[in-house]
Write a structure and sequence with these properties.
The chain is of the alpha/beta class and about 325 residues long. It is about 30% helix and about 15% strand.
Length: about 325
């Protein structure tokens, strides 16, 4: 089958062990981003598209321009895929959402950002290279409090890191998530207001769904301390539009450490959040490790092979499989 892999910006996939799973197919790897007519043109012959997380949106307009497309393979949640449009056109969409395996790469980057913010590592490194020795004073993590919003797999990993550093961990989340945390003996904040007002650091660990879009509001952020840090390695859309920039300008929280932005990739150095003096930023690299890529794309390739063998797995829209 003609298989197209999208958005491998670092041209990594061909060098990973899992890539051999596509050896029986005609494979094209795209290492740059494309939109609109340019994207339609490059995918015109594709029978299968493999998605690189949420880097490309799959819309009805795009699908209408791809007459040969039979299957889309992804991994994780799919807010970027118009599943109904796929189904209406008889295009099978498969995406594995592993229930147990946590994303260690994202949790590790979260902790790197926590350390970077509390010790001003970007600023200290830049000043050291400029010949300026020891500028400013950082803060120790031991004895401080971290609030984790979202009692899930990544949040639990971050909690373990925090405890290894001697921190107090408190939780917030959905009713169900808070109940699970409490049942596990975790400390759950007495109220939403207390959750945002208490911690030195708050880190977001939720999937972006219609229910969680904009779930962190300007009112929430205004409750944070003037020296507190907000960390977001999940999705920018969890925060209400414009709320974080306004909150930083108002001084609460005092700092943000971000791996995610509303529109990606961010290529404008003058972007209001990216250039903000109280923001530490990385370019959505939470999942960007060789190990994580190999794990995730093994699932994506297995879905392609199962479809090619006439036995599709992890179908999101099984009704499309029998579509005329």
């Amino acid at each position: 089958m003609k298989v197209h892999l999208l958005d491998d910006w670092a041209d990594t996939l061909r060098g990973l062990p899992s890539f051999a799973r596509l050896s029986g197919h005609d494979v094209t790897v795209w290492t740059d981003a494309a939109e609109g007519d340019a994207l339609s043109a490059r995918l015109h012959q594709a029978e299968v598209i493999c998605l690189f997380r949420e880097r490309t949106r799959i819309t009805a307009t795009l699908l209408d321009a791809l007459p040969n497309l039979r299957m889309i393979s992804g991994r994780g949640v799919w807010p970027h895929v118009d599943v109904a449009a796929c189904t209406a056109r008889g295009i099978v969409f498969c995406s594995n959402k592993p229930a147990e395996a946590p994303n260690h790469a994202a949790a590790e980057l979260t902790w790197a950002l926590v350390l970077a913010a509390m010790r001003d590592l970007p600023g200290q490194m830049a000043r050291a290279k400029a010949g300026l020795w020891q500028s400013g004073v950082g803060r120790t993590l031991a004895g401080r409090t971290i609030g984790l919003y979202g009692y899930g797999r990544i949040g639990k990993l971050v909690a373990a890191y925090a405890r290894a550093f001697g921190m107090r961990v408190i939780w917030w989340g959905s009713d169900e998530g808070r109940a699970r945390a409490a049942a596990a003996g975790e400390e759950v904040a007495q109220s939403r207001e207390a959750f945002f007002a208490t911690p030195d650091i708050i880190s977001l660990h939720m999937r972006l769904t219609p229910a969680t879009t904009g779930i962190v509001t300007a009112k929430d952020l205004a409750l944070m301390g003037a020296r507190s840090v907000l960390v977001n390695t999940s999705r920018a859309g969890l925060i209400a539009p414009g709320a974080l920039l306004g909150a930083l300008n108002a001084g609460r929280p005092g700092q943000a450490a971000l791996d995610v932005f509303d529109v990606e990739p961010v290529t404008d150095p003058g972007d209001p959040l990216l250039s903000h003096p109280h923001v530490i930023a990385t370019p959505h690299i939470g999942f960007v490790t060789e190990d994580e890529f190999d794990l995730q794309f093994a699932d994506i390739y297995d879905q392609v092979n199962a479809f090619a063998a006439g036995k599709p797995i992890n179908m999101v829209n099984p009704e499309a499989w029998s579509h005329p």
